Structure prediction request, 603 residues.
Amino acid sequence: MTQLNVRGLRVTLDRKEIIKDIELSVALGEWVCIIGPNGAGKSSFLKALAGIVDSSGEIFIDQTDLRQLSERDRACWVAYVAQEPIMPVGMKVFDYVLLGRTAHLKMLATESPKDLEIAHFVINELDLAEFIDRDVATLSGGERQRVAIARALTQASPIVLLDEPTTALDVGYQQEVLELIDRLRMEKKIAVITTMHDLTISGLYPDRLLLLAHGEIVESGTAETVLTSENIAKYYQANVSVVLHESGPVVIPDRKRKV
Amino acid sequence: MRTATARALPRWVWLFSAVAVLVTLTLGVSIGAVNVAPLAIWSEIASKVFGGSANLTPAESTIIWQLRLPRVLLALVVGAMLASAGCAYQGTFRNPLADPYLLGVSAGAGLGATIAIFYSNGQLRFLLPIAAFIGALTAVFLTYSLGRSAIAGRSSTALVLAGVAVASLLTAIQTLLQQQNTDKIREVYSWVLGRLSTSGWGDLLIITPYVAICILVLLRYRRVLDVFAVGDEEALTMGLPVGRARGAIIVAASLGTAAAVSVTGLIGFVGIIVPHILRLLVGNSYRILLPLSVVYGGIFLVLADIFARTALAPQEISIGVVTALLGAPFFLFVLGSSKNGSIS
Prediction:
C-alpha cells in the first residue's frame, strides 16, 4: 500500500531547532491532523513536507525520495494550501484553479484541452461552477478555501497538505469544508495532512491526531486518546473539561471564577 | 465547453493593435519640422520595396529614410522593450511599481555612460552604448549576487533591497566622477535625459536582435508570470522552480533594457505607465498583459516622441522628460490606488 513515510525530520530556522526528529507514516485515504499550541511548529512541519522550508531527514513515498525530485515532480506527489492563500486581484476563479495544472506542464508550455477539462471537472465536483467568472479576490473566506482546495485537487497529487483550512471560517463554512475534505479523501484515496487549532473540530473528521509541542510529537492516536484534559493542561497550559459526544470529544475551557 | 477565462483576447483586439501600430508609425514619420503627407510616405516605401518612383522631393525622401523612419522604429522597439520588461518585473516581484530599472540597470548604465564620456576623447564616443550596456549588466549582476547571498532565503524583497543599495552606490560614484569633470556634465545630462534623435539606422540595427530575443523569451514566460501571482511558497508547491524562473525572467528583462538604454539613455516610466493602463482595460493576467505591453509600449513611445519633437518646436524636449512628466503623476496615482503598494 502506498504511503508517505517521514523519518527523523528536522527543521532549523535561525539556528533554532523548530522541528525535532519527527516520524510519521500516512497511508493514502487517511486523514492525519496536527494540533498543538501556538509556536509548536505545526505550520513549519507542513511547510517542510511541502518543500517550502529546508529540512533534514527522510521524506519518502514508498521507494521515492521526495528530496531527489524536481519541483515539478514533487508537486505531482504533494499539493499544499497555505493558511491564507493569496488570491490575486483580477484573476478569475477558473484561471486560478487551472494554475493547479502547473505541475503537469513543462515550464514554458500552455494548457492543453485536457488540462481545461480537468479544471472544469474539479470545479463541477466542488459545486463552484457558479463562481467560474468571479474575481478570486472578491470571494468570501469559505469560497476562497474551496477554490484553493479545487486548485490543489486540479494538481491531482495523492498527498494534500492543508494549513489551518478552517481557522478563518464560521461554523457553517467549517462544516462544509471539512465534509468536502472528508468526502474527497475517501473517494479519491488522498492522504490528507492538516493542521488545526480548534481542538473540538480537530477531533471530528481526521483518523488520527498528532499533538505537537516544542517541535516534537508528544501524543498521537485517536481523538479520544489525545484530547484529554490532562494532555491539554500539560501542553496548552489550559484548564479544560472534555465531554464525550457521539461526534467526538468536546473540549470546553473551564471558566476561572474569582471567589 | 465554457472556459470563462482571461487567457485569450478576441481576434479583433489584435487586428486593432496592428492597425494602431501602422497608424502610429505613419504619424511618427509624417509629423515634424517638415510635414510629409501620410499617403506619400507609403507610396515612397512601396516604391523603394517594389520599384517604381514616388513623387517626393529628394529632400523629403532623405528626411523619411535617414531621419524619421529609423527614429520612429527605434522608439517602437525601445518602448516595446521597456514596457514588457516593466510588466515582467511587476509579475515576478508581485509589485505593481516595479520598473525596468528596478535592479539598478539605470544607475549602472549611467555610470558606464559617464565613464565613457569622461575618459574617451571624441573619436571613441562610439563606445558610449557599449559602456552603458556593460555598466547596466554589471549593476544587475551585482544586485543579483548580493540579493541572493548576503540576505539568505528566497525572498524577492532581498533582491529589491540589494537593487536599491547597488543603485545608490553606483549613483554616488557617478556623482563623484561628475564633480571632477564638471566641463563635460552637459553631455552626461543629455544622455541621462534620454534621446532618440542622434541615431541613424546603426543604433536600431544593433539593439533590435537583443530586444527581439529578450521579448520573445519574456513572452514564453507569460503563463509562469501568472503562477507567480499566488506567491512564491505556493508557486513552489505547484511545481514552479521559483528561483530559476525568476532568474530567467530577470536576465531577459534586464538584458533587453540594458540594450535599449545603451543607445537611448534613460527613458523612465514607460514600464509603469503602459502596463498599468492595460491592467485597467484588460485585467491582470500576464498572458494578455505582456503581449499587449509589447505592442502598446512601442506605440506609447512613438507618440511621446512626436510630442517631444513638436510641443516646443523648433526646440526638442528630451524624450525622458516627456515620459517623466506623464509618468510621475501616474506613478502617484498607481501608488494611491493599489493597496499597500502591492497587487496581492
Residues 3-253 of chain A form a domain with the Rossmann fold fold (CATH 3.40.50.300).
